[in-house]
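From the pipeline queue, job 12 of 40. The input is one protein chain; the requested action is below.

Action: predict structure.
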Amino acid sequence: MKKAKRSAPVIPDNLETASFLESLDDQYISNCKITQETIDYGTEEALHVDRVIFENVNFLEAVWPRSEFVDVLFVNCDLSNADFSRSVFHRTEFHNSKLVGTNFAEAGIRHTLFKDCVLNYATFGFSLCNTARFETSSLRYADFYEAELKGTEFHKCDMNDVNFVETSLNGVDLSSNSFENIQVTTEKLAGCQVSTEQALAFARQMGLVIKEA
């Protein structure tokens, strides 16, 4: 079966630069570039962010659940401890950004890229990751409990102590990533692609005693 190709954000050239509050219009932000800013904003209502670039922006523990991000680019941003639970991300990219402890629980993450990011302790429990890619990023202690990883790729990431319990890894290629320990459900490992060294680590984790020939 041919793997779906991830779609990049569709963002107009020469976006007008504006501040976050200037851009916010009845919970909608669209067609702008927000840069060199600290955003301290929480909301009980869903935000709709469309065709926006955030660059060098510090989000102070943003609480934006059930929000929608379409054609959005985050570059050199700090989104640590943000709450994006039950949000939707479509054609969104995170580059060189800090997302320590960020909450993506029950989120829909489609055609989304995380590249050169720090996602330690990030939560993706019960999320749907469809045609997403995690590349050259740190995912230490990240939680993917009972997530759905459809067409999702992990490439050259630090995945030590990631939690994949109750998550099917069928079709997921972990072979280029590094980890000493990883939490999985044995019955859901079938179809996962791993290196020889990783396979031995999984065998030891399952209690097998490996003897040299």
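Job complete. The radius of gyration is 18 Å.
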